[in-house]
Amino acid sequence: MAGSNPLSHIVQHPIKQAEAHLGFLTPEGKITLFSDQVSMLVVAALLLALVVPRWVRRRRGGDALGDLVPSGPANFVEGICAYLRREVAEPSLGPHTDKFIKYIWSVFFFVLTVNLLGLLPIPALSALGPVHLGGTATGNIWVTATLALLTMGMMVVNGLRLGGRHYLAHFCPGPLWLAPLLVPVEIIGLVAKTFALAVRLFANMVAGHTLLAVLMTFIFSAAASLGASGGLAIAVPVVLGSVAIMLLEVFVAFLQAFIFTFLTALFIGMSVVFHHDDDHAGAHGETAAH
Length: 290
Fold this sequence. Notes:
Layout: E1 14-19, E2 30-35, H1 36-56, H2 73-93, H3 97-117, H4 141-163, H5 165-169, H6 179-289
Antiparallel strand pairs: 1-2
Helix pairs in contact: 1-3, 2-3, 2-6, 3-6, 4-6
């Protein structure tokens, strides 16, 4: 690790690549089919598909009421689900909460699992094998951009499905003669929301891991220049600081998953709920007119 670039522990390490020419998407003429970060995405998906369902099925048992009471990890999972539904989804999605709550839960637990997997010291095992293992997939802009594009798809598709022409009218909130100015601005706003969603998660995960990698590099650099005693003198405060930063990283993993989920619910709600309010406003207006 001494003398190595701290970013080498953050960037993607391709394992399987193929030749491809997709313009600016493949500047080196190659496309990555499998990498250390893709492997972590697969691990996260397997954990969520195979382990979490077993957790949430655990019940206290004993009688009919006990069969409804969660126990062990099920308490933790159901507590998070209940909080996200009550405090995040319902205020933004209103009557459409039941339509999107499964997507909201999936987004939170997937981002959280990937963030936490990135904190495991799996890359240290890379020296034992021919390939680089581990890594934080949410520190890859392509991963966060894909998640953000999924949310953008949910916004547009469900805005059209639930709002129809009312959703399209939202792109021109002023007089029709201002449409050439307002429509491009609203489209830019839609793209900006997606861009902010992707960059916020990517930047926060990269920043934390970069700081941790730089601090750990200090130990090896001090040992190389000052000897073993100098390295030990540097190691003590750096390790203590790294432990504190690691605990902060765990907090950031939960926080960033929550922020990404909160913004996802908010953006989807902005695409589907205001139509409901407009309809009610129109209905109230018609009632008052009568």
